[in-house]
Structure formats: C-alpha cells, structure tokens
Specification:
globular; alpha/beta; binds beta-D-glucopyranose; 322 residues; Nucleotidyltransferase, domain 5; 20% strand; five-stranded mixed β-sheet; disordered C terminus
Length: 322
C-alpha cells in the first residue's frame, strides 16, 4: 500500500502543498503557500504548482493529488465559478502531469476536503448520507453514501433569488456585506434547512476557513441533523487530494496487474445478461427442433402404449364374456 503522497490545494488566493503521511492523515513536512497568480490562467497556475512541488524533494514515484474549485470529470475542468474562465475544458490532469513530471490526479476541492474528513476527520465511520459543506469564496459540497463519494455535487449552486445560493450565504457574502454572525447564521439556517429537506442526511460537516469560528454560528442553527465542524480545517484539501492520488494510483496498478490475453489486450469483462449469442444460420443442428422431435416421439409412444393397453383390455373383456 502506498504510504506517502503529495497534496496540492489550488484556491482563489493561495496555492498550498505538502507531503502527506497517509497512515495518519498528517502532513509529513510544513506546508508551503504561494499566492495564486492573477489572472489565474491554466499556464500561470501550472507554473506555480510546478514550483511548489519542486521545492519539496519528493521521490519520483510519489503520486500528486491536486484540488481544483470546479466540476472535474476525467481530469477535465468542466466549470469555472470562481476561477479564470479559460479553465473550462482544460485537461488539468494532463497539463499538471506534463509540467510537474509526476502522476497528477485532480479532484474538486470540496470532494477532496470531504474525502479527508471521511478518512481522518469528523466523518470517520459515518454511514448513510453524509454532506460536507465548505464555506469560503464559494460554497463547496461533497456527498457520501455509506462512505462512497458521489462526485461533483454542486450544492452551492442551488438557485436562489435569480443567482446561485452561494452568492447569498458563502463566507465571502458575510465579508462582502459585513454581516454580523447572527444575520449570517440566519442565511445559513435557510440554506441548511433546504439541504436537509432535499437529502435527509445523517450528518452534516461544515468546513472552510470560517469553520475555526464554528462556535459563533453553528450553535445558532436549528436542524434535525447533527451538524459539526470539520476536523482537518485548513489542511483538508491537501490531505484529501493526497488520499485520492493514492487511491487512483493503486487502482491503476491493479488494472496493470490484470492478466493479459495473447494479443496483449485485457480479457473481456463478463457482462451479466449482455448481448445474446447469435445462432449460426448454416448450422443444421438446431437443438430446439431436436428437442421437439424427441418430444413428438415420446407422445406417439405413449399414445401407442395406451392404444395397446385398451385393445388388450377389450380382448380380455371379450374373452371373459364368452
Ligand atoms: C464551485 C465548486 C467549488 C466551490 C468551492 C463553487 O463555486 O462551483 O466546484 O467546490 O465553489 O470552491
């Protein structure tokens, strides 16, 4: 099992990274933070990530996990709510793998924070539907069902008053509008009541930088669901990204170990109830007609036997009547 991976957390204002000891979920060296270049284009961010990874002497085979604040499918950024629009459609996995020289796996930032909480933090051993909501510039969400991630849940973009609800209740809204804790908690109450109604979660974990002030707003919320602060705080992204990189690297290794056929390709995966086999029309041996013949023969034999028995009985009757 891979014990060490490197985690990078790409945020709107800073890019942070550190090697992670995956047996404990702790950083194995002090993390480094470099301001996010502005504008945060793919090229400029790739340079910063490369500089950050190179400043640590990590072995060549160590996988690197990177968080990104967007929907990420197969390593490609599909949205760009709070980052430069030029990211949309960028294959972030390939870009960063090429630049850093390490195998890079990219994941949505909230999904990474969620993975970290589920493996090492407030969600350990939690089953059912667990929601990890991060409050920052935007609102991120990670959804787990019995420990399995449902990737790219975007619960910060529930429509509200003609915009995404994150404009109204993210930590950035509290700062922008200079809201006191009570007023902001009122907005959080509306949000969490809605999310609770929609998903009936068993646990809600609140992350993001502001979660270190959880005593100022979590006790003001009135919900049926237990709601707790994240435990990993600022490091959740780095730890979750590293954990994901390990998982992805191990899955790849397992695939490589599957036995190959003589042609070098992987043996076909059995498909339950897949395409029915085609019958060869030239084949004269049609098992179904054979069966029919067999059935017909048996019926005739039975009929003949009954006829014979009836005849025997009749002649016996006639004999008796004589
Ligand atoms: C983005 C999410 C991201 C969240 C937190 C939202 O605006 O759409 O993908 O997880 O911000 O950064």
């Amino acid at each position: 099992m891979i014990k060490k991976a490197f985690g990078v957390d790409i945020g709107g204002s800073g890019i942070k990274g550190a090697p992670v000891d995956l047996s404990t979920g702790a950083l194995s060296a002090d993390r480094l933070r470099i301001p996010t270049p502005q504008p945060s284009t793919p090229d400029a961010v790739a340079d910063t990530v490369t500089a950050l990874v190179e400043s640590f002497e990590i072995g060549r085979g160590v996988p690197v996990g990177v968080t990104f604040p967007a929907v990420v499918q197969d390593g490609v950024a599909m949205t760009a709510a709070n980052v430069d629009q030029s990211w949309i459609g960028t294959d972030v996995d390939s870009l960063l793998t090429e630049r850093t020289g390490h195998e890079v796996f990219v994941v949505n930032d909230a999904d990474a924070a969620g993975i970290a909480e589920m493996e090492f933090g407030a969600g350990r051993r939690s089953r059912g539907v667990v929601l990890v909501i991060t409050l920052g510039t935007g609102v991120g969400s990670a959804m787990f069902v019995d420990g399995r991630l449902v990737p790219n849940a975007e619960l910060g973009h529930i429509p509200y008053q003609g915009a995404s609800i994150e404009r109204y209740m993210a930590e950035s809204a509290r700062e922008r509008e200079n809201l006191d804790w009570e007023t902001w908690a009122g907005r959080l109450q509306e949000y969490f009541s809605l999310v609770e109604f929609l998903f009936s979660p068993t646990l809600i974990i609140v992350g993001g930088g502001v979660s270190k002030h959880h005593r100022k707003f979590l006790p003001l919320l009135d919900l049926h669901t237990p709601i707790v602060p994240a435990e990993l705080r600022n490091e959740a992204g780095i730890v979750g990204a590293a954990a994901l990189a390990r998982r992805a690297e191990e899955e790849k290794a397992a695939l490589r170990q599957r036995p190959r056929t003589a042609t070098g390709s992987f043996p076909p995966v059995p498909t339950g109830g897949g395409t029915p086999e085609k019958k060869d029309p030239s084949s004269k041996k049609d098992p179904s007609s054979k069966k029919k013949k067999k059935k017909k023969g048996r019926k005739e034999r039975e009929k003949a036997a009954m006829k014979k028995t009836a005849e025997q009985a009749r002649s016996a009757d006639m004999e008796a009547a004589k």
